[in-house]
Design brief:
single chain; about 325 residues; alpha/beta; 2 domains; two-stranded parallel ribbon; 15 helices
Length: about 325
């Protein structure tokens, strides 16, 4: 593993982070960065104001800079060539510089740290270390955990006919010929799991932040059986197919997560086993087989349940409530 630190012209840096046409920033190079673009919050506005001011040359003194991890780094004199790289710290800086590229001149420089390594554990440690200046959300840290790696491998273990692809790191399948609807983002996995197994479809839409905060405890806990997350993700995937085919009307999209809850209870209405138990794993396997064989029938029955408990009132404010979820549970749950 090697490391080099230098200053780079912001105009040259734009070339690194831009697509071939120079019209857009390359999103995939931030996929190992634990933070997404935060828009123009106070810090980012401050960077923008510096770049657009007469004091833009001070930018290099006022910025923590960018950290790039590359699998391959070659040096020829003062020039560097990097391949298979990620920006693991500096997502905000990169977006501000790209947005303000028309205002850049030769005085605007960026502190840059280049690290060459192929060691995934080292990469994870560097990501954490370079982002320690502000608190990380549980969901952001999840991509670096062993459980996340196991979940990714578990999804990939299914036969092609029933395979989904868990996107542990955003965009990891961008260069692979995989249908987008087969790719499961962590956010969608969390929502589907919370709806089906925690009985909380309301939070999947109206209070997702509360679900994020439970990552590592109630959700994505280290000892949870992986099959639960596959069942939830596969059910969400099949439900989307029902919408796309027209077998379930678009009016029911507001009830998406309540339909997932109803589907689970129709397949398995008994109280759930501990999430780390062999029994839970066995029950999930049974649910998988039912979804594989008759998802259309299951979701048609789910629609009928939602119709009954909502009395046909499918507007978002009415359907996306915990009261509707409790009505579904009361109607279908046994034991």
């Amino acid at each position: 593993m090697g490391s080099r630190e230098r200053r780079i012209s912001a105009k040259d840096f734009v070339g690194i982070i831009s697509d071939d046409a120079g019209d857009d920033i390359i999103g995939s190079i931030f996929y190992d960065n634990v933070r997404d673009w935060q828009d123009y919050n106070a810090v980012n506005r401050g960077m923008r104001e510096t770049i657009t001011s007469e004091n833009r040359s001070r930018f290099v003194l006022m910025n923590n800079g960018v950290t790039i991890i590359a699998k391959t780094l070659k040096q020829a004199g003062s020039n560097f060539t990097i391949e298979d790289f990620q920006i693991v710290n500096g997502c905000q800086t990169s977006h501000v510089i790209f947005d303000q590229r028309a205002d850049l001149d030769d005085s605007v420089m960026v502190p840059l740290r280049l690290i060459e390594t192929k060691d995934d554990d080292a990469i994870a440690a560097i990501v954490l270390a370079t982002n320690k200046q502000t608190a990380l959300k549980p969901e952001q840290l999840f991509a670096l955990t062993d459980f996340s790696k196991k979940l990714e491998a578990h999804f990939a273990s299914f036969e092609e006919e029933h395979r989904l692809y868990y996107e542990r790191r955003d965009g990891q399948y961008d260069k692979i010929a995989i249908a987008k609807n087969l790719i499961v983002a962590p956010k969608n996995a969390i929502r589907a799991f919370a709806s089906m197994f925690l009985g909380e479809p309301r939070d999947a839409t109206k209070n997702y932040k509360s679900l994020q905060e439970r990552v590592g405890t109630d959700i994505f806990a280290p000892d949870h059986k992986l099959d639960m997350y596959y069942v939830a993700a596969y059910a969400a995937y099949r439900l989307e197919q029902e919408y796309n085919s027209g077998r379930i009307g678009g009016i029911y999209k507001s009830a998406r997560y309540h339909l997932l809850l109803a589907a689970r209870l129709l397949m398995d209405p008994l109280p759930l086993s501990p999430f780390n138990s062999k029994e839970m794993e066995k029950r999930c396997r049974t649910m998988m087989e039912k979804l594989w064989a008759s998802a259309t029938d299951i979701f048609q029955d789910s629609v009928a349940v939602v119709d009954a408990v909502s009395e046909g009132k499918l507007d978002r404010d009415t359907i996306r409530t915990q009261a509707v979820a409790q009505a579904i549970i009361k109607k279908l749950a046994k034991g």
